Amino acid sequence: MVTKLPSSGAMPEGQEAGCDTSGLILVHRIFRWLYSELPQLIREVKPADTGRAAIVGRYANLDFFALHMHHETEDLALWDRLASRDPGCALHVEQMRAEHAEVASHLARIEPQLPPWVASADTERGETLARDIDALRDTLTAHLGHEESAIMPVAGAVLSQQEWDWMEQHTRAELSAHRKELGRDIMALQAGLLIASVPPDERQEWMRANIPMPIRVLYQLLLKRQYDRAMRDLYPDRPVPAMV
Ligand SMILES: [Fe+2]
Prior knowledge:
By secondary structure, this protein is an all-alpha fold. The protein has eleven helices and no strands.
């Protein structure tokens, strides 16, 4: 499925300014969790254990794909529109563009290191990779905080709900379009991580309010099992660390 690219500038006819941006907080929780877990998972791989490195490497690849995609989606949906509708936030928008470029340059340094580490499970290569991901995590964590404080309030005021929701639709369409390379359980992973980002005591209510009934049933029947299996692969010897 291909989603139409958003237009920038004027509000589309029939839509009005004002949207609920709170879903981004959940997405940011997922990224904070993924990128603080990943260096540790890499460091835990025993020397020459290429079987284990392949499992961790698959998730590293998914984490990199997800971060590229998340930032490209924001680049398409947010910056031009926010700067044109609220010129007062142009400086913040420039800062976000610069931070996205910084994250991209970390990824460009990290990604080529993954295949040789997966192929060898060499401890020294693993430590260099983990250290570079630590540095990316620090840059990313600061960026996510800036987006929450400087961008979300403006986006909530000047974008329509349809414009905001486009980002989630685009994300799902992209994951689905790449599921051959990402793995058949990619939609289960996306759903499972999103649910894990909601505090346990709010989860049932959040699912009722945010996930359509047929998808909730599909999750209970199939996707949850796929997600649980993936997490068991990733954490065979210890409980899955809580996200919230
Ligand atoms: Fe961002």
